[in-house]
Amino acid sequence: MSIACRVLFEDFSDAIGQTYGNSRLQDKFVRACNMALDDMSYDADLSTNHAHISSIDDTISTLDSSFAHTLFVGIQYFATLLGVRPADPKIAQVVYASNERLWNRLKGQYMRSVDNNLQPEQSSSMANLGYLDT
Q: Does residue 124 lie in a domain region?
């Protein structure tokens, strides 16, 4: 299943206390989403990168919907880098550190999932692996 960007954008807007109609926020969302998709592609060493979005009305079909939460955290992380953060520097620092930790953890889960899906099925030829005299 694909991921609807509008749903992610509405959740993102709610999370930071902004309105849905803010065009500047929409632009930052699109940029942050594309950065998160690139980061997921590069870190998981995908042969074909996830396709970019151009608006909040796009859908992401190259990423399974079970990873929508991972992408959401990536969007929050990169939006912080793009300037979408609390005005108080002390709170902004805490928000950034929290987003970074969560992004790295969920991205790691995504990478393990991709790696597990690429592993071959166990076969009888693997039975004696590691034993020299068999």
A: no
